[in-house]
Description:
Layout: H1 5-9, H2 19-29, E1 32-36, E2 41-43, E3 51-57, E4 60-65, E5 71-77, E6 82-83, H3 85-89, E7 98-101, E8 105-111, H4 112-116, H5 125-151, H6 156-171, E9 175-177, H7 182-189, H8 193-205, E10 209-212, E11 215-218
Antiparallel strand pairs: 1-8, 2-7, 3-6, 3-8, 4-5, 4-7, 9-11, 10-11
Helix pairs in contact: 5-6
Amino acid sequence: xxxxxxxxxxxxxxxxxxxxxxxxxxxxxxxxxxxxxxxxxxxxxxxxxxxxxxxxxxxxxxxxxxxxxxxxxxxxxxxxxxxxxxxxxxxxxxxxxxxxxxxxxxxxxxxxxxxxxxxxxxxxxxxxxxxxxxxxxxxxxxxxxxxxxxxxxxxxxxxxxxxxxxxxxxxxxxxxxxxxxxxxxxxxxxxxxxxxxxxxxxxxxxxxxxxxxxxxxxx
Length: 219
C-alpha cells in the first residue's frame, strides 16, 4: 500500500488525515487493490452497492445505457478520485449506472460499512473520514447539476461550448485537455458524433477554438 500514499494524500476522502495514519487506516478499513483492463466493467448496472472505489492509476467512465442501447457518459473518474460513494452510502440494491475502465487502471475498493461505522479500536480518524465523505458527496451533487445545465442546452454547439467553457474555467486557462475522445464526448453531451465533429470543424474555421484530439484552446 505504501506506493499509493502519494495518490491517496491528494484524494478527497483522506483530506486532513496525516500520512503516518494512512497505512493503519487502510488496514482498519480492509482496503484492497484490484487491476482492471481497458473496457472492463468495474461496477455493473443493476448490481448492489457495497464498495467505495478510488482510482489509483488510469481512469474510468460512469455510463448509463437506455432500453435501446444508447450510451450516455455521466462523468469521468481520474486518478485519485472517488466513485460509487453515494450508492454505497444509500445501500442501493440496484445501481442505475456502470463504471467501466476507459484505460487499464488500478482501483482501491473499501467496504462502505467500514467507513460509516467505527471499528472496535475506535480509531480517531473515523470522524474526519466521514466528514470528508459528506463533503465529497456535496461536491458531486454540484457537478451533477452542472452537467444538467450543459445537457439542457438546445443545440450541439451550445452544449459543446458550455462544456468547453466549464473546462476552461476549471483549468484556469483557455488551453486545456478533456478526458474524452470524440465518441465519448458525444456520449457525454448526449449528441450525435458526426454532428459534434461538424460543429468542432465549424468553430475551428470561425476562429472560436483550436483542437487536437483531447486538447482544446478557446480563442
